Amino acid sequence: MLMVRIVMLAALAGGASVFAFAPFGIFPLAFASLAVLAGSLQRVPRARGGFVVGFAWGFGAFLAGVSWLYVALHRYGGMPMPLAGFAIALFCAYLALFPALVGGLFVRWRRGGPFRQAALFAGLWVGAEVLRGWLFTGFPWLAIGYSQTPPSPLAGFAPLIGVYGVGGLLAFAAALAAVAPWRRLRGAAAAGLAIVGLGVAGFGLAQVAWTRPVGEPVEVALIQTNIEQGLKWRPERLADWLQTNVRLAREHAADLVVLPETTLPLLADRLPEGYLDELARDVRAAGGNLVLGVFLRDAQGGIYNAALSIGASPSQTYAKRHLVPFGEYSPPLFGWFYDLVDIPMSDQTRGAPDQAPMRLGEQRVAVNVCYEDLFGRELIRSLPEATLMLNISNLAWYGDSFAQPQHLQIARMRALETGRPMLRSTNTGMTAVVRPDGSVSDVLPPFTQGALRVPVQGYAGLTPYARWGDRAAMLLALVAAGVGVAGAPRQPAGSLKTVSG
Fold first, then answer.
1. What is the spatial distance between Cα 332 and Cα 199, in angstroms, rounded to a whole number?
2. Were 434 and a residue from 199, 289, 367, 422 both cysteine, which residue would form a disulfide, CB within 3.0 to 4.6 Å?
3. Number of H helices and number of E strands within the chain?
């Protein structure tokens, strides 16, 4: 019965962690959730039990945090309800294997005092999240560090060690809070100073300007088309959508006008003759440039989810390089999946890994498409040349769910890591401008049609993260895990709990 209660507590703590992320933003809950997990693991004597407890935490966290995928599979993909529910449960179970790995290895290797154990927990946590963000092309959504965007004091560490490093510091502090001997004055003082010290250091680092403004501000119009996903691909509505894009581009001519991902729901070579010239006419006449999401086809027949620029500067393209499994391409042996769902343009080709930023007037704009901004290590390839980061997205697939605010929070972390403004033009939300310090300067209400017109300043220079990428966080994690397992006898289960009363 004790083990059942521990597993249930871990699952509830995992589920509660979703409230640390957007749209709720109660960032201390991430600390509390991980502290409950680490404390629960202290009560487990064997690695097998640690694996089960970690799995329970992960299953609760991901089921609460990414269940919006069900909307895409059932409502828009046409997958039967029971099968869509089973698919989401299976996917969450896969994601839960990573915290399960942390739990099992932590119980197996824990030894020494509170600081050693906290270091081991943090090192394992970073390793598991990095692995989750890489294996099978990666799914780093809800990496725990995303919950620590401003006003969390740990946000100050993001320009140095990125989202994984921030998550590692959070895991260290939470585990230390869980295992420290709080009834012993010396132990309590050491743990308390360490936890508070991390917050103070993060606050101080947040005052550092890692990059600098460059050039004159540009007038940007980020357009939100608000075309309902269930209607977007209907042939009888195509003329309406083409005209909607023309109207919005004309109404909001600026130095840089952006239309969202796949705003034109057909291949560019099938557009009516002269349509692109008509779309960009007013923007070009004003000396500006238009960037839009559209499908492009190469000479070999490959189809790309791309961004195309037209206007006063020479036309340029960016092709999405990090595709979404099951949505934009079929992994090997999974062709049967497409017999169960109806996803348009689901057989796409990857863009080249190193694509230069678009030269639009005086700005160098690094474009990324939707899901790509989850991968900070890939976005920094455009630095230091890029002065602005631009994400175009279509989250209409996920309806009115946590997906939109969670994705904006991810963009906030990318702005912190790169020291660049992150511009977002989306179909249904959330269209926004994020400052280099991770704060949101302007945002459109979701599920409305319009444009966000704001002056935006370009930035130059490199943050430490832009130089090192995830290597710094991985190195720190390796050192922390090594410190946690070396040089001390294994700590028996429950002994720290006994010491602390």
1. 45
2. 422
3. 16, 15
b/e burial code for range 248-266 (CB count within 10 A of at least 16 → b):
bbeebbbbbbbbbbbbbbb
Residues acting as catalytic residues: 261, 320, 370
State the average pLDDT over residues 248-264. Answer: 96
Query: Where does 213-458 sit in CATH, by number?
Result: 3.60.110.10
Who's near 2: CB < 8 A, 6+ residues apart? 43
**Rounded to whole angstroms, how far apart are CA atoms 384 and 405?**
28
Residues 6+ apart with CB under 8 A from 243: none
**% of residues, the chain, pLDDT over 70:** 93
Task: Give Cα separations from 294 to 32, 112, 297, 306, 394 (angstroms).
Answer: 43, 57, 10, 6, 12
Q: 270: which residues sit within 8 A by CB, 6+ positions away?
A: none
Give me the residue spans of the domains in the chain: 2-209+466-499, 213-458
Cβ 112 vs Cβ 121: under 8 Å: no
Pairing of strands 303-311, 316-319: antiparallel
Q: What is the pLDDT of residues 125-136, one digit of tens each?
A: 999 999 999 998
Contact 264, 294 (CB under 8 A): yes
Q: Do 236 and 250 touch, CB atoms closer than 8 A? A: no
| Cα–Cα dist 279/253, whole Å | 11
Contacts of 51 (CB under 8 A, 6+ apart): 100, 101, 103, 104
pLDDT digits (tens, 9 = 90+) for 398-455: 888 999 999 999 999 999 999 999 999 999 989 999 999 999 999 999 999 999 999 9
Q: Which two tokens stand for residue 453?
A: 């017109």
Lowest mean pLDDT among 71-75, 294-298, 470-474: 71-75
